[in-house]
């Protein structure tokens, strides 16, 4: 085994230049490679596009034996292996999509020492006595790479139960170095990866998570498809990009809408048959200027350098998910846009999903905490990037390349409107024993005599009509801000508003409530029509 300095280091650089055709390592790559070549375990955290692959590919070529790469991306294994073979690397894969013959060939190459890298699916290592494990025991292994290692985190957004069995690698092959890699970066996730994969002694390599070329923007959702179209037409004509929607139905509708509007767009979600998904994915990768409209089922492992924008038409479930998805923009380092539209309805809908989810109370609390952090990012008056990086435990200063830096939102003292709203909710709760969604409280504050107001005699409440100084959309902003700051709670199937312990501090005037002042928009032509 080459030493980490001297000959070993030269061997790594030689491989980088000769095989991969690059002049120099980037960022943490060199340190990771040296550590793993010398036989150490590593936990590598690098943003998408940071260059994680070379962190295990180079050591696999320098060390004796085969580098075994555990990857959940079965659909991409063929592409990855083809790309390596094109560079002259002896690579193969084993997964369930393969026929017997192809599998036999790869097994043979492994046993006769004719492989440098072997990609395997996590499920094929399950149980500890699978055919793949028995095969691996008969050959010489240079290292194990565990790609997308956050899939082992149970509350994460990509949890794969098969990953839990990977702790056995350490027991079976205590002397083989392991390198776990991920682009998901909260310290809670690192800790969970380290403990579940028995990587407590691994060295951590944490790259900066900043992606300075991505401009982060978060806008209140008004007419989402029209807002999206404006963005594409004015700032990204002819560009490739990804539009994320929460549901399959809205993926289909949005893709149709874009096509009708003259923008080449393709849908992608788990409800499409496999052939269509594969075709759309490869068209997106190979053709220029296509827009992929997708659920979050799309994107992991996709290496398309010139994605110029990632747009979210619905609120992501967590900051980690948001960061991961937006990170697919601008991998080539050129200016790119991450744009998100979110509205009160998103919060209501996600709450509903959390309240009706299968998991136990702790699980639901975890999901709620993720949503709260996402909301706080949306409602912040600070630099988005500062907030985003702080979430991943990294300090930074105002970036000059996000919406709050470029057009600083005024913050305004919304304490009085907050009190008006909370006291409306309080009166409904106390005097009537009722709870309603945000719309009803806003109707009451605006003094609207709707059918529902009349039916419940809500015009007799003392807060009826005391909020006519704000518009409906400003009131929605007040509700969003209260939710984001944890001063109000939304719950249940109907997204009803209920007070929480912190609400009292506002009602008792013990604190002030600062809010983002959103620029006033021109009158709407459609959408939810105010009376
Ligand atoms: P990740 O897996 O972290 O998302 P990749 O390993 O796919 O990132 O690398 C992203 C891109 O950067 C790839 O196109 C890769 O070829 C390129 N790259 C990685 N390391 C280097 C390097 N040292 N020099 C030049 N290009 C690099
Ligand atoms: Zn900023």
TrEMBL record:
| Taxonomy, superkingdom | Bacteria
Q: Biological process GO terms, please?
A: DNA recombination; DNA repair; DNA replication; SOS response
Q: Which UniProt keywords apply?
A: ATP-binding, DNA damage, DNA recombination, DNA repair, DNA-binding, Helicase, Hydrolase, Isomerase, Metal-binding, Nucleotide-binding, Zinc
Could you list the residue ranges forming a coiled coil in this record?
Answer: none
Q: Which reaction does it catalyse?
A: Couples ATP hydrolysis with the unwinding of duplex DNA by translocating in the 3'-5' direction
Q: Which cofactor does it need?
A: Zn(2+); Mg(2+)
Composition bias, Basic and acidic residues: 513-523
* EC number(s) recorded for this UniProt protein: 5.6.2.4
Which GO CC terms are listed, alphabetically?
Answer: bacterial nucleoid; cytoplasm; replisome
Q: Helicase C-terminal domain: from which residue to which, for each copy?
A: 224-375
Q: What EC class does the entry list?
A: isomerase
Q: Which residues form the Helicase ATP-binding domain?
A: 33-203
Is this entry keyworded Nuclease? no
Where in this protein does the record put region Disordered? 513-531
Q: Per its record, what are the GO molecular function terms?
A: 3'-5' DNA helicase activity; ATP binding; DNA binding; four-way junction helicase activity; hydrolase activity; metal ion binding
Family the UniProt entry places it in: Belongs to the helicase family. RecQ subfamily.
Q: What is the name of this protein?
A: DNA helicase RecQ
Q: Which gene encodes it?
A: recQ
């Amino acid at each position: 085994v080459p030493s980490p300095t001297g000959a070993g280091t030269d061997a790594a650089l030689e491989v980088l230049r000769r095989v991969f055709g690059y002049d120099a390592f980037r960022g943490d790559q060199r340190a990771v490679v040296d550590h793993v070549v010398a036989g150490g375990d590593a936990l590598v955290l690098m943003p998408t596009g940071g260059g994680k692959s070379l962190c295990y590919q180079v050591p696999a070529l320098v060390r004796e034996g085969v580098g075994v790469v555990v990857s959940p991306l079965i659909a991409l294994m063929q592409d990855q292996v083809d790309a390596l073979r094109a560079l002259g690397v002896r690579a193969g894969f084993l997964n369930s999509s393969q026929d017997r013959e192809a599998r036999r060939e790869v097994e043979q190459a492994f046993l006769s020492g004719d492989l440098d890298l072997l990609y395997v699916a996590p499920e094929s290592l399950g149980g500890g006595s699978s055919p793949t494990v028995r095969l691996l025991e008969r050959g010489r292994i240079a290292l194990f790479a565990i790609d997308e290692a956050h899939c082992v985190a149970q509350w994460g957004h990509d949890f794969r139960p098969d990953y839990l069995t990977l702790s056995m690698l350490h027991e079976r092959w205590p002397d083989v170095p392991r390198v776990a890699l991920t682009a998901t970066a909260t310290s809670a996730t690192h800790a969970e990866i380290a403990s579940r994969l028995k990587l407590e002694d691994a060295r951590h390599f944490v790259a900066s998570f900043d992606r300075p070329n991505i401009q982060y923007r978060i806008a209140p959702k008004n007419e989402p498809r029209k807002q999206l179209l404006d963005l594409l037409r004015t700032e990204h004509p002819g560009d490739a990009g990804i539009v994320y929607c929460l549901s399959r139905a809205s993926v289909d509708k949005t893709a149709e809408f874009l096509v009708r509007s003259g923008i080449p767009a393709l849908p992608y979600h788990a409800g499409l048959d496999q052939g269509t998904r594969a075709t759309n994915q490869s068209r997106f990768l190979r053709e220029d200027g296509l827009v992929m409209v997708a659920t979050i089922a799309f994107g992991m492992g996709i290496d398309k350098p010139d994605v110029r924008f990632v747009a979210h038409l619905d609120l992501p479930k967590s900051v980690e998910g948001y960061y991961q998805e937006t990170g697919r923009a601008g991998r080539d380092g050129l200016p790119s846009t991450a744009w998100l539209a979110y509205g009160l309805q998103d919060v209501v809908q996600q709450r509903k999903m959390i309240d009706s989810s299968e998991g136990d109370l702790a699980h639901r609390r975890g999901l709620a905490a993720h949503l709260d952090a996402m909301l706080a990012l949306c409602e912040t008056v600070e630099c988005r990037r500062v907030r985003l990086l702080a979430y991943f435990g990294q300090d930074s200063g105002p970036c000059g390349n996000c919406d709050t830096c470029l057009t600083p939102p005024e913050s305004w003292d919304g304490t009085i409107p907050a009190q008006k709203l909370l006291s409306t909710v309080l009166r409904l709760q106390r005097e009537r024993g009722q709870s309603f969604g945000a719309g009803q409280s806003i109707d009451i504050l605006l003094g609207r005599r709707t059918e529902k107001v009349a039916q419940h005699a809500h015009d007799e409440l003392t807060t009826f009509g005391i909020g006519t100084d704000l518009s409906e959309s400003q009131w929605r902003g007040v509700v969003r801000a209260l939710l984001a700051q944890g001063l109000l709670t939304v719950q249940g199937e109907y997204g009803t508003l209920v007070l929480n312990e912190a609400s009292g501090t506002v009602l008792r005037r013990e604190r002030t409530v600062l809010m983002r002042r959103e620029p006033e928009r021109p009158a709407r032509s459609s959408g939810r029509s105010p009376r």
